Amino acid sequence: MLHNLAAARERLAQGSPALVWQRHLADTLTPVGAALALIEPGRGDFLLESVEGGEVRGRYSMLGIDPDLVLRAEGDTAEINRDWRRDRAAFAPIDGNGLDALRSVLGEIAMPTPEGLPPALALLVGYFGYETIALVEKLPRAQDDPLNLSDMIFTRPGLVLVFDALTDEVFVIAPIWPGEEAADALIGRASERIEEALRRLEQPRAASTREPSPELEELGENLALAPTVSPDDYARRVARAQDYIVAGDIFQVVLAQRFTAPFPLPAMALYRALRRINPSPFLYLLDLPEVGIVGSSPEILVRLRADSSGQPQVTVRPIAGTRPRGATPEADRAAERELLADPKERAEHLMLLDLGRNDVGRVAEAGSVEVTDSFMVERYSHVMHIVSNVTGTKAQGKDALDALFAGFPAGTVSGAPKIRACEIIAELEQEKRGPYAGGVGYFAPDGSFDSCIVLRTGLVKDGTLHVTAGAGIVADSDPASEQRECEAKSGALLAAAREAMRVACQPGFGQ
Fold first, then answer.
1. Does the annotation count 393 as an active-site position?
2. How many whole angstroms from its chain centre is CA 501?
3. What domains are defined for the chain?
4. Alpha carbons 98 and 407: distance in angstroms, whole number
C-alpha cells in the first residue's frame, strides 16, 4: 500500500515536494543484500550503516539509489546535472560556489517529515573534500592533484530504503519533485519506482559467474599498502612541523600520507569486508561516478538533530589519542591505561576538546555549550582512541552548513590554531587531500544533518585502492612513532582489501 497519497497530492498542487512510501516486513532482507540487488556501480548510489561501540548495530540503515540530480564543485565553481538519469554529461554551471549551490538544492528538498516515517531520511548525500575549507577561509591549495577528484559531490536519490533493525521493517520511500505534470502522474511514476525496486528485491540473487583466480588469491595474500611518501621524507616533514611549533606558529598539526595498493574488485566488495573487519559508528559506501568511497569512520564531523524537547542540537565528538589494540584482554587494558596516562596524548586531546567547544560555540546559543563525555576510551578493530563529546543548542538564523563550516575541517585532522595549521599542511603535504579529513554526510528534508570525518576510508579508482592516514605532530613527537601511527590507522583498510580478495576467490561470491 502506498502511504501519504492525499498529503502528497496536496503538496504537489501547491508546488511543494512530497514523499510517498511503502512499508514492508524485512526480517529476511539485509541492507547489504538490498544493496547488492539494487546498486549500480558509478551511478551515485549509497549505503549508510552504523555500529555503536564496535559491537551494537545502529537502528537505522539507509540505501539510496537511482539519483536524479548530481551536484559537484571544484574550487570556486560549481555545476549541477538535473538530467542525470538520461544524460550523465549534462552538467550546467551555476552562479556562485559549491556552498551556494548546495544551499539552493537544500531549499528544494526542504519539507516536514511526514508522520509514520523514521527520523533518519537521507535526501542529499555526498562528501565535502578537505579543500572545501577554502570556500570559507582564504587558504592556499596544494598544487598536486594525483586523484583528480571534485572537491565536493552530492547526489539526490530517486529512491531511499530505510531499514529499521528494531522492528525488522523497511520503508521504501520515493521523493517527488513538483513539475509541469499533474500530481497523479508524478505520484504514479514514484509508485512505479517503488514497485520496480521491490520486484528486484524479491528475485533470487544470481550466483557469481566469476572464475576462480589464482592470481587474485595470490595478490590478496601478499597485498601491502605502498606509501607515496618515503619514511625519510615523512620524518623531514615532521621535523619541519616541529620547527613551526618551536617558533610559536602552532601547537599541533596533523600530517597525513597516502598509501596505495592494487584493487581489481568493485567498491562494494571492499565495503562488505570493511564493515565486518572494522565496524564503526559511520559505515558508508558512496558509489560515485568519479570514485568509490568506502569508509568506517569513528568520528562525528558535525551533527545537527533535534533533541527530545525539539531543540536543534549541534554535536561534535573530538577523537585524539591512539594506541594499537592489545593481543589479549590484559594487553588491551594495559594499552588503555598507558594511553590515558600519556601526558602527550592527554594534552593533545584537551587542546582539541577546547577547539571543539569553540567550534560549537560559534553557532550555538550563548551558554548552551557543554561537554557531555570527557576522556572516554573507545575500541575499534585495530586501534583505540580517547573520545569526548560536545553539544550546544543551534542559534537562531544558523543552518546546517553554518554548523558544518564552524568546525570544518575538524581540529583532529588539521591542528591548532586551525587556520595556520591548514596553511602548513598545504605546504608540507604538497598534494590535495581530497575526501580525506573532509566529511561524508547526508541532509534530511527537515533540516537535520549528520556527517562524519573521512577517516579509515578507502578510495577505489581505476583498479587502485588509495588510503590516507595522519598523525598529530607536537613538539616532542617521534617521527618513527608517527609513521607507525599512520600505518596502524590504515591497517583496517589493508585487512579489508585482503579479505575482499579472499572472499572473491570463493565459490558463490556474489559481487
1. no
2. 24
3. 5-504 (3.60.120.10)
4. 18
Mean pLDDT over 342-351 rounds to: 89
- 412, 415, 439, 466: the active-site residue: 412
pLDDT at residue 54, as a whole number: 60
Q: What is the pLDDT of residue 178?
A: 95
The confidence score (pLDDT) of residue 98 equals 94
pLDDT score for 271: 98
Q: What is the pTM of this model?
A: 0.93
Predicted confidence (pLDDT) per residue in 198-224, tens digit: 999 999 876 666 666 888 888 988 999
Q: pLDDT tens digits for 15-50?
A: 999 999 999 999 999 999 999 999 999 999 999 999
For residues 177 and 185, is the Cβ–Cβ distance under 8 A? no
Say how many C-beta atoms besides its own lie within 10 A of residue 299's C-beta. 24
Are the beta carbons of 383 and 324 closer than 8 angstroms? yes
Q: Which of 385, 433, 466, 498 is catalytic?
A: 385
Is 436 considered catalytic here?
yes
Q: What is the pLDDT of residues 246-275, one digit of tens each?
A: 999 999 999 999 999 999 999 999 999 999
How far out from the chain centre does Cα 198 lie? 27
Burial 92-123 (b: 16+ CB within 10 A, else e): eebeebbbebbeebbeebebebbeebbebbbb
Residue 442 annotated as catalytic? no
Alpha-carbon distance of 80 to 72, in angstroms, equals 7
Asked if 385 is an active-site residue, the reply is: yes
Nearest-10 crossing angle of helices 214-221, 479-504: 160
Buried b (16+ CB within 10 A) or exposed e, 350-367: bbbbebbbbbbbbbbbee
Catalytic residue among 284, 380, 436, 442: 436
Share above pLDDT 90 across residues of the chain, in percent, rounded to a whole number: 84
Cell numbers standing for residue 376: 572516554
Give me the phi and psi of 457, to 5 degrees please.
-130, 140
Q: How far apart are CA 123 and CA 159, in angstroms?
A: 9
Give me the DSSP letters along 40-51.
Answer: -TTS-EEEEE-E
Which residues contact residue 425 at a Cβ distance below 8 angstroms, ignoring those fewer than 6 apart?
253, 254, 255, 256, 414, 415, 433
Residue type, 163: F
412 is catalytic: yes
Q: Is the pLDDT of residue 76 over 70?
A: yes
Residue pair 85/66 in contact (Cβ under 8 Å)? The answer is yes
Of the residues 322, 472, 491, 498, which is catalytic?
A: 472
- Is residue 174 within a helix (H) or strand (E), and if so which, with residue range? strand 169-176
The DSSP call for residue 5 is H
